[in-house]
Design goal:
Length: 234
């Protein structure tokens, strides 16, 4: 595991039922898994701990997860639930910090700082390389790099005011072609205005959008982002 003096992270989202299914498919008992972890990877893990992992009582760390995947003849991603963060996506692809950083053209330390903070600072070329290396869709990229909230605020303003003013800001945030962003914003603005005039189904009083700290405001932001990705077709 790469380490640059950063904080300790929570373990990735472990898929406990998958671990048990994979073990049983190989005809192995928990004790066999424990033996393999020790013999192949030098990890002193008891059979009881293996059972605890499979029951969701305990969770393996990154090194343990990689070793467990080796013992069970599977990729680490098969032992993970749906990834959301950069670290989780990297783990799913079985990449170390240094391996991924090399593909992005940056140092391991620089990449790790962004992974730890949850805020992506890479340029356009590096963002494209990140999506390719981790197999990220545009929507997954936004979530993993901590830009969902920023996008939601931009889209909220775009559909309720002059959408043309937000083409460039949105295009800078999302990994989509600017022409597509323009078309999507125009469509969202048109749809929103039509709904406001007819059924008011997106914002019944206008307070749903402006009250962004309340449940109604958050629901509006979530809906406008969902509609953006649906309209973009990505």
């Amino acid at each position: 595991m790469d380490f640059y003096g950063g904080p300790v992270h929570p373990t990735p989202p472990f898929n406990a039922p998958a671990a048990r299914r994979l073990r049983e498919a190989l005809g192995m008992a928990p004790g066999h898994v424990a033996y393999g972890l020790a013999a192949q990877y030098g990890l002193r893990i008891s059979a009881e701990t293996v059972v605890a992992w499979e029951r969701g009582i305990a969770t393996p760390g990154e090194r343990e997860l990689t070793a467990l995947a080796g013992v069970l003849w599977c990729a680490p991603g098969e032992l993970l639930a749906a990834a959301a963060t950069l670290r989780e996506h990297r783990m799913t692809r079985d990449l170390t910090v240094d391996e991924l950083a090399r593909q992005l053209g940056m140092t391991g330390a620089s990449y790790l700082r962004m992974e730890e903070s949850g805020r992506w600072r890479g340029n356009e070329k590096q963002s494209g390389a990140l999506c390719r290396a981790l197999g990220l869709s545009a929507a997954q990229f936004m979530t993993a790099t901590g830009r969902d909230e920023e996008l939601a605020e931009l889209l909220s303003s775009a559909v309720t005011t002059r959408w043309q003013a937000y083409v460039r800001p949105v295009a800078k945030v999302v990994p989509l072609d600017r022409a597509l962003v323009q078309d999507v914003l125009e469509q969202l603005h048109t749809d929103y205005q039509a709904l406001m005039v007819s059924t008011l189904s997106w914002s019944s009083t206008g307070q749903e959008r402006s009250g962004s700290t309340g449940d109604a405001g958050r629901a509006f932001l979530a809906r406008v982002v969902e509609q953006f990705w649906r309209t973009a077709g990505v």
